[in-house]
Amino acid sequence: MSSSQNSSSSSRTDPSAAAVAEAPPPFPGLMDVLCRVNIRLGSRRITVRDCLGLRPQSIVRLSQPVGDDLQVCVEGVLIARGEVVIVDDSTSIRLTDTTPEQEPEDDK
Questions:
Q1: Please, what are the domains in the chain?
Q2: DSSP string of 62-107?
Q3: Going by fewer Cβ within 10 Å, which terminus of the chain is more open, N or C?
Q4: Which SS3 state, helix, strand or coil, does residue 37 take?
């Protein structure tokens, strides 16, 4: 019987790992602060003249190549990249990378 107790205790998770997972956040008052999240498809710089000329059905070519991931920015800071998905009749984004290697490109 004692061998079964040893085997069951070895299958348990490390108690220190569980304590880390249950540790309170370092700044609990900040957990409910709202942040602006922008999903960026691409960008383009245009003149005021061109901007004033925009009408329904106008096409604005973006600098981002077809197939590139979207950029997820929180308060202007790039935090992830992702792709468009449809979930329950709603447009959503699936994150594909949460450790971007570069800053968002300047508007071109």
A1: 28-97 (2.30.330.10)
A2: -SSPTTPPEEEEETTEEEEEEEEEEETTEEEEEEEESS-SSPPPPP
A3: N
A4: strand
pLDDT number for residue 63: 86
Other beta carbons within 10 Å of 63:
13
Residue pair 51/44 in contact (Cβ under 8 Å)? The answer is no
Q: Are 59 and 82 in contact (CB under 8 A)?
A: no
* Tens-digit pLDDT profile for residues 3-15: 444 444 444 555 5
Predicted TM-score (pTM) above 0.70: no
- pLDDT level of residue 102 (50, 70, 90 thresholds): low
